[in-house]
Amino acid sequence: MELNNWLYFREIQIDATNINMNLTDWLVAIKLDSNNFDFSKTQPSGADIRFTDSDKTTSLDYWIENYDTNNQKATIWVKIPSILANSSKSIYIWYGNPNAITNSNITIISDPFNDNSCLAFYPFDGDTNDYSGNGYHGTWYGNEQYDGGVFGQCAKFDGESYIETSFNSNSLTCVVYSFWLSFNNNPESQKILGFSGSSDMAIQIMNGTTARVYFRSNLVYQDVSNFFINDGSWHHYLFIIDNNGTKHYRDGTFITTTTQTISSVTTPFRIGLVIDDSNLSNYYNGLMDQTHIFNRPLTEYEILSLSQQLPYSIGDEIFHGSKLSGVVCDKYGIPIVDKPVKIFIFDKDSGKLYRTTTSDKGKWEADHLPVAENSKVLVVYTLEGDYRGDNDLVGGEFSITQPL
């Protein structure tokens, strides 16, 4: 990946030291704010944001879920090809190119397993649209509200509103519900989501913590006690419903299997309420984020990837590109314009050679020097092919203060 035109980068250190397996194509949600990022140095939309692997060259796929320059908040998903078990991984975020066009790619999260198994995806970032590409957009009935979510924004349900979509489960042999919840109430019943109407296949919360998967068509349900956690924190929940029964997962951990098997339901998918044809009741009251529907059973690894976020730290800003220019003069201050002169640019303290270039009619310049702002470099001129330091030409010490 060519990054000569990006002025700044930061190292992001991802901590997988507590993960006892190698990770591949792992999604990490990077949250930026005024404490770890300078929004004034990017385009207003974040179009110049890029990510590279630890070699600072290999491009990484990413999706900007939200980017709010005014409030200095952003959530960006990055797909990392590999992370070794019990290790740390460095990636890099690049920015500071006013001419860049965005490479943000939503498919890394809307189709996270690259097999078109995701039928619908609702991130709830200020709308109820389906971002899977299948067009099952939602319509909000009641008070439409959004709040700060586990990633970006989330849907906020007030106990009197819900979302209805055009999606139904007719002919599916498997349905997977994956979603994040945060609530702290303890009602007798809250209907979270599902295909609903005269024949439900829906998830309910009973008495604050009990999970109920309810099938209205044959009046079948089973309860799993102490499944939901109503402590106001975010938790991930996932249900796999197929011909083998219903598997329950919380925060990436398998909890139990109940015996309800999938049934064909032609009624639409709803969120925040599962509707009895004759009665609107038991609305959800709380927050919901990142809701997926899949059409196949997920593996334990895939479930873990949806539910677990690795901790990370963002390093200091590094000034990627500097521009120096000058005129080659002899020791009397007269420009050397009749012949090309070789220019060597060194780090003043370490002596590291950063760049060589050649003057043209006495003038020279060097772009994209990988040195920090306000650092100092030593510039040496010579008429020889290699530096010897015995020429009557004047170089000197330069302070890096001029970005490109």
Molecular structure report:
The chain is mostly beta strands. The chain folds into three domains: 8-107 and 311-318, no CATH class; 114-297, Jelly Rolls (Sandwich); 322-399, Sandwich (Immunoglobulin-like), CATH 2.60.40. The chain is 3% helix and 44% strand. The chain has two helices and 31 strands. Strand 26 and strand 27 form a beta hairpin. The longest helix is centred in the C-terminal third of the chain and has 8 residues, at 300-307.
Low-confidence regions: 384-394, 399-404
What's the helix count? 2
**What integer value in Å does the Rg equal?**
28 Å
Could you tell me the CATH topology label of the largest domain. Jelly Rolls
- Any idea of the CATH class of the largest domain? Mainly Beta
Class from helix and strand fractions: mainly beta
- Beta-strand residue fraction: 35-45%
Helix coverage percent:
under 10%
Briefly, what is this?
This protein is mainly beta and 404 residues long. The protein folds into three domains: 8-107 and 311-318, no CATH class; 114-297, Sandwich (Jelly Rolls); 322-399, Immunoglobulin-like.
